[in-house]
Structure prediction request, 253 residues.
Amino acid sequence: MRLRLLGAAALFLTGLVQSSFGASIYDTCITTVGPTACTFDGTGNVTVSDAGIISWKSDAAGALANFFTLSAGTGVFSVIPNGSQETIQNLSIAVNPVNALFPPTAFMGFPIGAMPGLMINFISPGIYSTLTCGGAAASGQTCTPAISGTTPGPFSFVNFLDPIFGLSSTATFKFSGVSADGAAKWSATFTSQFQGESFQQVLNDLAVNHSVNNAYSQGTLVIVSAVPEPGSMIMIGTGLLGLAAFVRRRRAK
Prediction:
């Protein structure tokens, strides 16, 4: 009898957990590259200000603010035609701090794809030292500009020698978050290449002009990682507490 009751309780909790996750268009996304992997590429123009504002514009005709060009969609994103204009929201380091989780905030939307948008809740710090951003420019140098003091910002710079443009640099930055329906997690790596400019020059431009603008490209991966709603978590927790109390009472008899 005890085993039957415990088994019934376990099945109840399992059903509760499963029912707490609603069906989502992202349910088919997987973590390995394959026909159902959910990825897409994006391009546009990004402006970074010395006040920590990151803003976006499309690279398509008209250069609309807060849009980007989506291409090479796979999985659920394959229904979106190459060149479609999807939305992307500006960020503020003051509101969206680097290297700290913050409440999910609307970031990328898919008006043409008509699927849940992607919310951002984490900005990764740059991977290089904040102490190597000065000195004479040379190929192979790396730098993560500090936000303040030696606190790393989100950008990872590398100087390299371009065969056409000479000494140039790239900046990469990484964001991550959850889908608006809570069904999946996502991560994206953005890359901006400064042709003919070392990162020392880029940082000087930022200091003098208070902002830097450049083209960027991105690669985004969406993976399934269902997260129950808060109410469902309370129900699950209550069920577990009830199951524990049941076991204690049975042992006491």
User: Anything to note?
Assistant: The two ends are 14 Å apart (CA to CA). The CA atoms of residues 167 and 176 lie 31 Å apart. Residues 1-20+231-253 form one domain. The longest strand covers residues 166-179.
